Amino acid sequence: MVFSFTIYCHCKRLALRAANGGQYAWLLVCMVCLCIHSDTIFAQEQSNYRIDSLKSVLQTQQGAAQYSTLIELCWEYRALNPKQSVVYGRQAIIVGRQFGITENLARAERFLGVAYRNLGDYGEAIEHFFIALSIDENNGENPVEIGHSLNSIGRIFILQKKPQEAIGYLERALTIAEKTHDDRLLAYCLSNIGDVRHLQGQYSEALGLLLRGLKVWEKIGAEVNIAATLSSIGLSFYELGDYKTAQEYYMKALALFDHYRQPHDMSGTLSRITSVYLMLGKPNEAKKYAEEAYRYAQQSQSRQQIKDALWVLAETAAQLQDYETSLEYHRLLKEASDSLYTEEAARQTAIYSARYDHERKAEQVALLEKETRQQELVRNILIGGGVLLLVSLVLLVNRFRLKQESEKMLEVRAAELAAANTQLRVAKLEIEEQNRMLLDLDKEKNEFLGIAAHDLKNPVSAIQGVAEMLQHDNFSQEQVKKLSAVILDNSRRMFELITNLLDVNAIESGKLALQPVVFSANVMLSGVIDRFEQPALLKNIRLELSLPEQHLYVLADKYATIQIIENLLSNAVKYSNPGQRISVRLTESSILQTNRIWTREEWLQMSLEDESTAEEFTEKCVRFEIQDFGPGLTEEDKAHLFTKFARLSAQPTAGEHSTGLGLSIVKKLTDTLGGRVWCESLFGYGATFIVELHQASTEQFQTMQDPHEMAV
């Protein structure tokens, strides 16, 4: 498989011997082998022919004429010999600067960055990618080129295991690809965002994105990119524990890489195949592929691939109980890792990223200042015209009045004019306030739609990719169950988000119909706890419920109250680590009367009198407390705790999904019920959410009791 030319020559000699000796069965076998490997030899000869042709052309050129040929040679050598690619790329940039050539300068910088990336020199790579991005943005002629530069920068952050930094650049590139309908850029973005989701542990979502990217690559017919995507899909199946399917995708990718002489990618795929054999406990088979991975890694001169190959070699030797060899491989691995992940490379990446962000913000500030000056100019012109018109009107009126009325009438008119000016100022302030409110509403609407579309987009992509995969491939029943689980998981996320959005809309628009009844808080809380026993058990979390001996009765909408408690309890389970406990308490409390206008004398009386006398100034409430022992809340978290789409510092402990709407719904429902909700938390020591609702009076208990509880 990996020695196509040698096998081809050997089969050719055997075929001649079989034909001369009359061994027709062997002749048939050799002819089949020749057919299998002839395509690979043809592809290799085509690649060699193109490189040789470009080098021949380069020898006949001088000066500026060499520029385009050097760029093409840089691209052709990027995977075959990255060091040689760097040489041609640097020569191209030197020639371009020497002769003042600006055409394709960004592409030359980007190709050189790809060569450095394949060598594992991420600091140099990120520098050239940001230079390419700056040139593309200054030109502004081709947004697709900007998208490719953004995508390349995102890829470097993926290789440095920084998914949060990568996703911003990749989503900008994806937006450009979708607007311009550029399939190649779209496929790159889908594949790279799939790799980001893989780094974040969201393997089912990564699989959906990669399958979408594979479909686009197949439409384009880019077989090398198809091979890379197949290898990434295999890695997703590997992380999901489906080693057989992962091996099938790895083998498909390896065959394509071998066909197109891609030692860099062959090394990575061979290392992944080795990992599968190690997981299956087959170290002898793993050793063969690990050694091939290391050989191709050295051939490609990629530090990343050398590091990966050394790791699987060390693990293979360990499984074979050859611990001395394993230790030597680990020593070499340490040296390779130190050279790959240097502080200088990380520092360069951070500097160029920060510099780019600063330049973008500076451009935005300049644009905003320009727009502000234009608006001020227009406003001044309008104010000046209005003032001129008003002054002219006043002069005409005064002139007319001077001829007909006395000094007294002139004073009255002046007073009227002053009153009119006051009304105009008030009207202006009211209009400005209305404009501000409209701008705030428009901003909130845009944020609302953007976040909702973003949170729905990834589950839809995953469902679409898996569904298309199920249509075109044959899978076993077990594989269909795993893929259908991906669809079910993402559809549940979509349903949860849509339900929360509808709840928020119903509350804010006043369309939520509430039915206040009197019901037992003890019974209601026990029912909610029962429904959360199973989710808590899955995470080995113990629910502790503390109820008073006497029933406490609440005057509120029963189902809205249940929704409040369920949202808070769901968050407590979601953000608690396995093995912890959650404490739920129900008590009675007293608060100052909220509908009372206090006088100074009453306030002093309540402060000085004993507790029994102060009871006439208070009202009783039912108090729910839900305490978890998770990470707690920072001061920044508390500042926007109950806002819509709040993103807190704490993350779900088992990969659960959060819409960012739960606490907003809790706050709005509690306010609608006339209650209050707050959180008491010290960062690092858990959080306690407290809800207080009105306690039913004796008269309300007799007239408004829930009919279901009366039946019980």
CATH hierarchy: architecture of the domain at 516-711: 2-Layer Sandwich
Overall mean pLDDT stands at 79
Number of helices: 27
Percent range of helical residues: over 70%
Structural class: alpha+beta
List low-pLDDT spans.
1-10, 36-43
Would you state the CATH class of the domain at 516-711?
Answer: Alpha Beta
Q: Give the spatial strand order of the biggest sheet.
A: 2-4-5-7-6
Radius of gyration: 36 Å
Q: Superfamily at the CATH H level of the domain at 516-711?
A: Histidine kinase-like ATPase, C-terminal domain
The end-to-end span amounts to 76 Å
Largest sheet features:
5 strands, mixed
Task: Describe what this molecule looks like in 3D.
The chain has 712 residues and is of the alpha+beta class. Among the domains are: 405-512, Signal transduction histidine kinase, dimerisation/phosphotransfer (DHp) domain (Helix Hairpins); 516-711, Histidine kinase-like ATPase, C-terminal domain (Heat Shock Protein 90, 2-Layer Sandwich). The chain is built from 27 helices and seven strands. The chain has helices spanning 4-21, 24-60, 66-76, 82-98, 105-119, 122-139, 143-159, 163-180, 183-199, 203-220, 223-239, 243-259, 263-279, 283-300, 303-319, 323-340, 343-404, 407-472, 477-508, 521-538, 558-574, 600-608, 611-614, 635-639, 662-672, 698-703, 707-711, and strands at 516-520, 542-546, 553-557, 581-592, 618-628, 676-681, 687-694. It has a five-stranded mixed β-sheet with strand order 2-4-5-7-6. Helix 1 packs across helix 2 (24-60), helix 4 (82-98) runs antiparallel to helix 5 and helix 19 packs parallel to helix 25. The protein is flat. The model is unreliable at 1-10 and 36-43 (pLDDT under 50).
